[in-house]
Amino acid sequence: xxxxxxxxxxxxxxxxxxxxxxxxxxxxxxxxxxxxxxxxxxxxxxxxxxxxxxxxxxxxxxxxxxxxxxxxxxxxxxxxxxxxxxxxxxxxxxxxxxxxxxxxxxxxxxxxxxxxxxxxxxxxxxxxxxxxxxxxxxxxxxxxxxxxxxxxxxxxxxxxxxxxxxxxxxxxxxxxxxxxxxxxxxxxxxxxxxxxxxxxxxxxxxxxxxxxxxxxxxxxxxxxxxxxxxxxxxxxxxxxxxxxxxxxxxxxxxxxxxxxxxxxxxxxxxxxxxxxxxxxxxxxxxxxxxxxxxxxxxxxxxxxxxxxxxxxxxxxxxxxxxxxxxxxxxxxxxxxxxxxxxxxxxxxxxxxxxxxxxxxxxxxxxxxxxxx
Length: 372
Hints:
alpha/beta; globular; 14 helices; 6-stranded parallel beta sheet
């Protein structure tokens, strides 16, 4: 279905969400038509943030907002959906557009499998009526469903369109880029040189895939790394838990800007705990690259993650825009004690032939635990 038709049928003038590769056509449409500096479109930090933002829009205008997300984001909307939006509370209407990763019968990555199985059930449990849009869903079917949804929305209920793989199309494909020169894979290669045999926790997306391939190329095997293939935004908390209970080891966390922003409160907890043996590295390309490249609020000069880390109590903070600055920061983080944070500015982009881990999540966990 063409995104132009879907947005016309929905008839909303405010969208907020977290990008998803399954919704790439919608995301490209939003960036092409609205961009991000607009009252019509806001890319949120996490899906719960977007649901609350949508509530504010409704309170201010009386209109119905749209929140878009990957189905992995359903967990983040449970609280606002049932304790804020729900008809038994404030009765704030909202339309959700949800990319269905891990749909039963459709091959996908391990972290999406169970989430895919329970996607529709979770919506049902939250009292959100859902309609699945497939490649062969007609415009008329969607119009009819929207007429039905309009009645529910007028009563303060929430509804959802669940989007199957390949169901949406848009004639333009937006290209995302920035002006930074360091490539993330090469940044991770430098991190691996300095971390040596220290344990590493890496965030979801391409960073973990690149770390896996670097280990393969180095002939190192994979016992050192915990690849957080799902659970976006929680890699730093996992690393904190390890660092607190294995104080004799230097623990490295390879994070991304989108992930760090998604649950940025974790940085306050890390700063308060202040383990001397934790190095938290955020590779900041200002983009949700693993799902298409849409911008995060950490792009440009508006938000400085090093200042956030400093304010949260990280003892040592470093910033790098080139490999000379990166190597010096990594050297200091390796040789000295004290909670460290490194923000590394990176270009958007990855190899087209980038592979995926050949080990299962359980195999990864067991090998990592044995190494620890």
